[in-house]
Automatic annotation (TrEMBL):
Full protein name: NADH-quinone oxidoreductase subunit J
Enzyme class: translocase
One MF term in the entry's GO annotations: NADH dehydrogenase (ubiquinone) activity
Single GO cellular component term: plasma membrane
Assigned protein family: Belongs to the complex I subunit 6 family.
Its membrane topology: Multi-pass membrane protein
EC number in record: 7.1.1.-
Transmembrane segments: 6-25, 32-53, 59-81, 93-111, 142-164
Lineage per the UniProt record: Bacteria, Pseudomonadati, Bacteroidota, Cytophagia, Cytophagales
Keywords: Cell membrane, Membrane, NAD, Quinone, Transmembrane, Transmembrane helix, Ubiquinone
Record's keyword annotation contains Cell membrane: yes
């Protein structure tokens, strides 16, 4: 087995294992950590597919930004009585049956499809050209939406910190 094949299976097992672990974890914080593991494994798969920009964006935006804010919010908020937020599995049997039916449908649909190789197409632009074009476009044509999204994320983070500090000051 060559290195790319080994790495593909390695990242696939991590992503599938962490995603499967989400079904059984009861603590929301551990669930968020498993989502980070899934996103990092997907970034590894993107790198193997020569989509380096998508992988870096996946790590920076999702694993590095959004989920860190979610974990920050989870750690600052607690249920009444100081108990951590725990997910109850009230409908786990019905959810399992629906999931198995969905999985069976996917297996059936994929087994009916013939995956044939198509003739080679013209080469896509190089990674450097596509990434450079996107970077120039973000910093020239789309600078206002780009900066607005950054300010909006900053405001959400500050708002979460203020709400958490007000909640703690009312308790004391």
């Amino acid at each position: 087995m060559n290195a790319p094949s080994f790495l593909f299976y390695f990242f696939e097992v991590i992503a599938a294992g962490a995603a499967g672990g989400l079904l059984f974890v009861r603590n929301v914080f551990y669930g968020a950590l498993l989502v980070i593991a899934v996103l990092l494994a997907l970034a590894g798969l993107y790198i193997l597919a020569f989509a380096e920009f998508v992988a870096v964006t996946q790590i920076l935006v999702y694993a590095g930004g959004v989920l860190v804010v979610i974990i920050f919010g989870i750690m600052l908020t607690t249920r009444l009585g100081g108990k951590p937020l725990v997910i109850e599995h009230a409908r786990s049997v019905s959810a399992t049956l629906v999931g198995l039916a969905f999985f069976g449908t996917l297996v059936y649909l994929f087994s009916q499809e013939s995956f044939e190789a198509h003739p080679a197409k013209a080469a896509a632009p190089t990674v450097l050209d596509a990434t450079q074009t996107l970077g120039v476009s973000l910093m020239s044509d789309y600078v206002l939406p780009f900066e607005t999204a950054g300010i909006l994320l900053l405001m959400a983070l500050i708002g979460a910190a203020v709400m958490a500090s007000e909640h703690k000051s009312k308790k004391a």
